[in-house]
Amino acid sequence: MDNYAHKLFFIPSGDPYKDSQGNWVNPAESTEWLPATDMEVDCRDQPNDKGTSTTVVDGDVLEFGSIVFCELDIPNLKRGDRIRVIMDGAVRLVGAVKRFSRDYFHCRIWV
User: Fold this and answer.
1) Cβ atoms of residues 89 and 33 within 8 Å
2) 43-78 burial string, b = 16+ CB within 10 Å, else e?
3) Measured on CA atoms in the order 88, 4, 54, 98, is the torsion positive or negative?
4) Is there a contact between 76 and 7 (Cβ–Cβ < 8 Å)?
5) What pLDDT score was predicted for residue 30?
6) In the 8-state DSSP scheme, what is residue 6?
7) What is the tens place of the pLDDT at every residue in 75-92?
């Protein structure tokens, strides 16, 4: 069994800005999924079957549907970025980042 059997794609969130031609661009409306790495597979998702929650730094309780474990090569994601996890061409998970953690051996994304 592979440690990472899925592929992660993302759409970064951000504030609207003007492009080089003076047109307003809203990243939240983008439909272009960017690969997180150049690797064939770089993550695995683990559904939250038990309905557990976690407490974040400010004391808020975070309820999540899945945790995605990723290679360290992925870019830092921020709250609100959209992600998509694919396995063998089929979409396994689509959601927004609720929390991101870069640890010693891997990264974790709460969705």
Assistant:
1) no
2) bbbeeeeeeeeeeeeeeeeeebebbbbbbeebeebe
3) negative
4) no
5) 75
6) B
7) 899 888 899 999 988 999
Q: Among all chains, which residue has been given the structure tokens 């990472």?
A: 4
Q: Once rounded to an integer, what is the mean pLDDT over residues 104-111?
A: 92
Over residues 8-45, the pLDDT tens digits come to 998 888 777 777 888 887 776 777 888 888 877 789 99
Token output for 85: 């996890």
Would strands 43-47 and 34-35 be described as parallel, antiparallel, or unpaired? unpaired
- pTM for the complete prediction? 0.81
Q: What are phi and psi of 28, to 5 degrees?
A: -65, -20
Q: Are 60 and 98 in contact (CB under 8 A)?
A: no
Strand stretches in the chain, DSSP E: 7-11, 17-18, 24-25, 34-35, 43-47, 53-55, 61-63, 66-70, 82-87, 90-96, 99-102, 107-110
